[in-house]
Write a structure and sequence with these properties.
This protein has 753 residues and is α/β, with parallel strands linked by helices. The chain has two domains: 329 residues, TIM Barrel (Alpha-Beta Barrel); 313 residues, Alpha-Beta Barrel (TIM Barrel), CATH 3.20.20. It is 41% helix and 13% strand. It contains 27 helices and 20 strands. It has a seven-stranded parallel sheet. Strands 16-17-18-19-20 form a five-stranded parallel sheet. Helix 1 runs antiparallel to helix 2, helix 11 packs across helix 13 and helix 26 crosses helix 27. Bound molecules: glutamine (GLN) and zinc ion.
Length: 753
């Protein structure tokens, strides 16, 4: 019925100038001591609390800071530290879990739901004994006290126990029937202790994040949810509980939570508009608080505050109290537009980063209390996206595009046009990015060297890379991608409809931050993007050079994308630009073109029911991009994984002539998986793991190829590493590629016999 306050579910922790990255990396390098690192961290936390307080946010979160990752923090909090790290302590143990240490491999890292943030996967087994590792000074308590000492009352944020266990994996030595969820009751007892101790310190509210509820959940998992919050709800002395859900609709979890004693439920009305109807469907929560995710926490657009306000108004009739909030933590967006002086005004007028989103939440709170006049100015300042009618007309005319000829007809044409041997050898595209290459790119960006000097440096690099590949004897060459800083940004910078930020950093994992480009309007390609470099490379080599592009899905997945039209429509615009690029490459004599789609699986919707529609447009966009070429032009694609799961059928539907995938670490099982899924085109299961500096022997790779040949005929088998080589050094790459070519030769000879 009422609204008195506002909140955000979390805030970026890297600092406005990536101070955390700098300090942490200095600490790792031994240039900064632990005390100085802690001091930087405390400054950053204070900065966030004061910023939120000064912005007028009613309820301020704490424990949103992390030295590396909030899931890792949770593992440390509840002492879920695998044995191999137990000889270390403090920050050393913490960073070893994140990054590995001498002889001790790190925890596995994976994506946080469908975002580009990565967390460290808890590793649990029947021997895991949860306990509150540091009862007197555990992190949520310490941060609460720290804020309190600064005069700021906060709401500690914890990963909810159910989500924590659902994100965990069994330790490698756990018995086959062990499931992390078996440990639920033990974990909940530690949370109970945490809540009691926080209450003892004066904490009034705690936020328990349960984003796992936005994905499909079994009845058993919903029963577990019930058990968690019944148990925590019945504690005699505890803070009030906000169970925050986000990233989508929570379906059957809503009535379950409603039946517990939690005081507040956070619902995401941006990614999950259906949450509103669901709430009405259970008769609302008349005596509870709804923390209403009305401002998108993971995209960069200004909110439609009128729309948000009408949702909030509808909620007033469905809840005891409505607290306007961000839809999720603001961790996923850059800190502030204040740091972006160069954005074009019409683009800037549509944007809101963390600071601006916080102001929107506060404004919504005021509008609810004082009336909607409060937001009039905000609405007026918003601009419309740029429209390009030519692109739209071309896409309408193209429809799905004409499919390519049959795979067999193409294969025959390509045998004639390319004349490649069986078990053709190639690489995935990038070659080591040497210091010289990076320096030349940086100097060019900073204006210290002119275009000519820069391009001469890139040409010299291409000369070297081509000569090396010919010397090694690879069959299909690449130019090495020295001119590319990043496989998405490089293209975004050349396409209209995309904007780049100068300081729009977002944490990807640990100290790694990325600056996703912003796809803000209709996408067009003013001029060819790669033709010059690729044809230059071809002019230097006798063997075919493979053109290298980033596919439409990946171009969207690693950018901020428009929310004013379906993703499928945006994907088609990017695909059309790529289609034009591919045609230009082909006309310039490039006969092999690779369109990388490493993000195909990443964008897969959290709910199974949404997946078919996603794969349909994702595959459609790829085919639109690649179907405009002659039969004799060979289309490759590349993906950085080998467990395809739900996308395995889509791999074949892409209709590429050759697909290269990661396989070195999964022992070629995937070749068999692909065959069973009906994949019948060329396949390059990576025969060596580029993620390790180890140089694989020719024997080893020969063995891998023989194994692959059990599932795929020789004329469809390609020989390549499992990913691009840019993170490696020549000292490893050169011998490894020589061994790889040697292995291919041996297997060909064996086939001839
Ligand atoms: N062509 C890219 C490269 O070799 C592919 C990168 C990737 O798969 N992520 O670097
Ligand atoms: Zn890859």
């Amino acid at each position: 019925m009422t609204t008195k306050t506002t909140t955000v579910l979390g805030y970026p922790r890297i600092g406005p100038d990536r101070e955390l990255k700098r300090a942490t990396e200095s600490y790792w390098a031994g240039r900064l001591d632990a005390a100085a690192l802690h001091e930087t961290a405390a400054d950053l936390r204070r900065g966030v609390w004061e910023e939120l307080r000064d912005a007028g946010v009613g309820q301020i979160p704490s424990n949103t800071f992390s030295f590396y990752d909030h899931v890792l923090d949770t593992s440390v909090l509840v002492d879920a530290v695998p044995g191999r790290f137990r000889h270390l302590d403090g920050l050393d143990a913490y960073f070893a879990m994140a990054r590995g240490a001498a002889g001790v491999p790190a925890l596995e890292m994976t994506k946080w739901f469908d975002t580009n943030y990565h967390y460290l996967v808890p590793e649990l087994g029947p021997d895991t004994r949860f306990r509150l590792a540091d009862p007197a000074g555990f992190k949520p308590l310490a941060e609460y006290r720290e804020a309190k000492a600064l005069g700021v009352e906060t709401r500690p944020v914890l990963v909810g126990p159910l989500t924590y266990l659902l994100l965990a994996k069994p330790a490698p030595d756990a018995p086959a029937d062990f499931r992390p969820l078996d440990l639920l009751d033990a974990l909940v007892e530690v949370y109970a202790e945490i809540l009691e101790r926080l209450a003892g310190a004066g904490v009034q509210w705690v936020q328990l994040d349960e984003p796992a509820l936005a994905a499909d959940r079994t009845d058993a998992e919903l029963a577990a949810l019930r058990r968690v919050y019944d148990r925590l709800g019945e504690l005699a002395a505890r803070p009030r509980l906000l169970v925050a859900t986000y990233f989508g609709e929570i379906g059957g979890a809503l009535p379950v939570l409603a039946a517990t004693r939690v005081e507040a439920i956070g619902l995401d009305f941006v990614a999950g508009p259906g949450n509103l109807e669901a709430l009405a469907g259970i008769g609302g929560l008349p005596r509870r608080t709804v923390v209403a995710g009305l401002v998108d926490g993971r995209n960069v657009w200004r909110a439609d505050l009128r729309g948000a306000l009408s949702t909030a108004a509808a909620l007033l009739g469905l809840a005891g109290e409505v607290v306007p909030a961000t839809s999720c933590s603001l961790l996923h967006v850059p800190i502030s537009l204040d740091a972006e002086p160069d954005l074009e005004p019409d683009v800037r007028a549509r944007l809101a980063f963390a600071r601006e989103k916080t102001a929107e939440v506060v404004l919504l709170g005021r509008a609810l209390a004082e009336g909607q006049e409060v937001i009039a100015g905000h609405a007026a300042a918003t601009a419309a996206p740029r429209v390009d009618n030519r692109v739209r007309a071309r896409l309408d005319a193209l429809g799905a595009g004409t499919p390519r000829a049959s795979r067999e007809a193409r294969a025959a044409a390509q045998r004639r046009s390319l004349g490649l041997p069986v078990l053709a050898t190639t690489t995935i595209g990038s070659f080591p990015q040497t210091d010289d290459v990076r320096k030349a790119r940086a100097a060019h960006r900073a204006g210290r060297i002119g275009v000519e000097e820069y391009e001469a440096a890139m040409r010299a690099e291409i000369d070297r890379v081509i000569a090396l590949q010919e010397d090694i004897g690879l069959d299909v060459l690449v130019h090495g991608e020295p001119e590319r800083n990043d496989m998405v940004q490089y293209f975004a910078e050349q396409l209209d409809g995309y904007a780049a930020t100068v300081n729009g950093w977002v944490q990807s994992y640990g100290t790694r931050c990325v600056r996703p480009p912003i796809l803000h309007g209709d996408v067009t390609r003013p001029e060819p993007m790669t033709v010059r470099w690729t044809t230059y490379a071809q002019s230097r080599g006798r063997r075919p050079v493979k053109g290298m592009l980033t596919g439409p899905v990946t171009m969207l997945a690693w950018s901020f994308v428009r929310d004013d039209q379906p993703l499928a429509d945006t994907a088609r615009q990017v695909a059309l630009a790529l289609r034009d690029e591919i045609r230009d490459l082909e006309s310039a004599g490039i006969g092999v073109i690779q369109v990388d789609e490493p993000a195909l699986r990443e964008l897969l919707p959290l709910r199974a029911a949404d997946r078919a529609a996603y794969l349909d447009w994702a595959v459609g966009a790829f085919r639109l991009a690649t179907s405009g070429v002659a039969d004799g032009t060979q289309i490759h694609t590349h993906m950085c994984y080998s467990e395809f799961g739900d996308v395995i059928g889509a791999i074949g539907d892409l209709d590429a002539d050759v697909t290269s995938v990661e396989a070195a670490r999964s022992h070629m099982e995937l070749v068999d998986d692909l065959r069973r899924a009906g994949y019948a085109a060329g396949i390059g299961p990576g025969v060596y793991d580029i993620h390790s500096p180890r140089v694989p022997s020719a024997d080893e790779m020969t063995g891998a190829l023989h194994r692959a040949l059990r599932a795929v005929p020789a004329d469809r088998l390609w020989v390549n590493p499992d990913c691009g080589l840019k993170t490696r050094g020549y000292a490893e790459v050169e011998p490894a590629l020589r061994n790889m070519v040697e292995a291919a030769g041996r297997v060909r000879a064996a086939l001839d016999d």
